[in-house]
Design brief:
Blueprint: E1 2-3, E2 5-7, H1 20-29, E3 35-37, E4 44-45, E5 47-49, H2 50-60, E6 69-70, E7 76-77, H3 78-89, E8 96-98, H4 115-121, H5 129-148
Parallel strand pairs: 1-6, 2-5, 3-8
Antiparallel strand pairs: 4-7
Helix pairs in contact: 1-3, 1-5, 3-5
């Protein structure tokens, strides 16, 4: 399986390499303005919730050998992540937009083709970005309360 931008439970140990969903969520809960690169409404990735990744892994147990994209097939922006998190976490902090220091080498768009994965494995992502973040919000709060502020 070729994983795209996975987010969800049990990623806190990854520290600075944890998903931007978790990093933005922790920024918001700590009362800090979410920091985004300028133009973040146009910087898009294929974000996939861990529960869909688990499903994809289980489906490969009896599948023919091959390379399969584990993703949603839908690119969403970093701005959308922050907007959804603010709704789910009950916040309305203004975003702080900073220049992208990696602009020349930055990947501005990733989106998986999951049709082969759907056909070969019967894979169908169950969580939109909104649904995944809603499901993950309680865990983000727990991490903030028990791991950050313990």
């Amino acid at each position: 399986l070729r994983y795209f931008n996975v987010y969800g439970a049990r990623e806190f140990y990854k520290n600075k390499t944890a998903s931007m969903v978790l990093q933005f969520g922790l920024q918001i809960l700590s009362g800090k303005n979410p920091r985004l690169f300028e133009g973040s409404d146009k910087i898009k990735r294929d974000f996939v919730y861990i529960k869909d990744i688990v499903q994809a892994n289980l489906l490969t147990l009896n599948a023919a050998s091959g390379v399969y994209n584990a993703a949603t097939g839908i690119a969403r922006s970093f701005q959308e992540i922050v907007d959804i998190l603010q709704r789910e976490l009950g916040s309305n902090l203004p975003c702080e937009y900073i220049p992208n220091p990696y602009a020349r080498s930055y990947q501005f768009h990733t989106q998986a083709d999951i049709e082969p994965t759907k056909k070969a494995l019967g894979y169908e992502p169950k969580f939109s970005l909104e649904e995944g973040i809603k499901d993950y919000a309680a865990e983000i709060k727990r991490i903030y309360e028990e791991e950050i502020n313990a």
